[in-house]
Amino acid sequence: MLSRLLGPEIHWWGALLAIAADLVAAGIAASLAAHVARRLLLRASRGRVEASSIAHQVNSVVRFVRGVLFLLVTLALATPALEAAGARIEGGFSPSALASWVLRSGLRVVLIAVLAFVAIQGVSLFVSRFESELAQAGDPGERERAKRAKTLGDLIRNVADTLIVTVAVLMSLQEFQVNVVPILTGAGILGVAAGFGAQTLVRDFISGFFLILEDQARVGDFVTIGPTSGVVQAINLRTVVLRDVAGVVHVIPNGSVDRIANHTKDYSYSLVDLGVAYKEDTDQVIAVARSVAEELQRDATHGPSILAPLEVLGVDAFAESQVTIRMRIKTLPLKQWEVGREFRRRIKKAFDAQGIEIPFPQRVVHVRERKAAAP
User: Fold this and answer.
1) CATH number, domain at 340?
2) At CA 53, angle to CA 236 and CA 145, rounded to 5?
3) 150, 304, 320, 339: which sits with the fewest CB atoms below 10 Å from its CB?
4) Contact by Cβ (8 Å): 18, 87
5) Which of 325, 328, 324, 326 is nearest to 309 (CA)?
């Protein structure tokens, strides 16, 4: 069968030697190319990301380059080697035509595949560097941003891989004389139909992307979205998950989020409105409040949660039965309610000790006695 395919004049020992030489030459060329590719990749990434984070990508590129170049050199040298051994392939198949296709269209196909693979690995290296730099910080906010960077990185990586592979496949099909116009037309029609059918889903994903990118809220923040308030449990590309004070979990689509009120972005304020009677001296009231706040800031339990001394904003309103003095305390995120409750408790005790009146509504009831009826 082989004699019928390769021709009767083939010298088998010469053919075996030619194939062996072909494989050796292909192996040497592939090894040299892999060595050069490894050195270039390591030099390009040195000092930018950790070696452990790029080892997998570099090894993948090197293995791919070695395998593709070995196959290309083997196919390119196989035909001349067999012809030198006297092979004359029959049955309408021309070795020279195969060699010509390998050296022209085949080489372009391999080049397209190599460039696509390198582009995919390049995107992966860039995303890994981005995630690695954000993950080096130690405070909780930076770590949360690193988690979001990973979410964005996975999205960017998947979109880029899909685009690169699609373009590479279409370019390769053209080298095989395949008309890609009907494929592109069908894909365009399918994309338009999918876009009309999934407008809400696409809007949720786009809104979620910018919500994560702009760092509008973090996991653990207390936010208000529309009529719902709660602690952020998770931020996904499609939904935001909140848990309110009663423990109820609310899942809100990102496309419906038009406004976010973040109560714990970087820091918080405990806002306190003190109402005292009109007869009280407001300067004395403020001095007592400052003294209580300083004592609270020195407290071992609540002091670490306070970031700045008490800030007195002044007399805020003249109510029906009280003068309202507004003040606030800067605290760590989510600590404003705890600090505010303790501050009010101590204020009540201090005002009682100083004789400062905290007014409250009072009602006077007059009881009218009826006169007894005449006998």
Assistant:
1) 3.30.70.100
2) 30
3) 320
4) no
5) 328
What confidence score (pLDDT) does residue 71 get? Answer: 73
> Cα angle vertex 166, ends 163, 169, to 5°?
150
Give dist(CA 144, CA 56) in Å, integer. Answer: 25
Residues 146 and 285 reside in one and the same domain: no
- Judged against a pLDDT cut of 60, whether residue 51 lies above it is answered with no
The domain of 227 spans 211-262
Last residue of a domain, one of 244, 262, 280: 262
H or E element, residue 5: helix 2-6
Are the C-beta atoms of residues 53 and 128 closer than 8 Å to each other? yes
Give pLDDT, residue 66. Answer: 74
Identify which of 35, 34, 22 has the alpha carbon closest to the alpha carbon of residue 66: 34
Q: How many CA atoms lie within 13 A of 294 on its CB side?
A: 6
DSSP helix/strand/coil, 323: strand
**Which DSSP letter does residue 304 get?**
G
Residues 199-253 have pLDDT tens digits of 777 788 888 878 877 778 877 889 999 889 999 888 877 888 999 989 999 999 9
Asked if residue 368 belongs to a domain, the reply is no
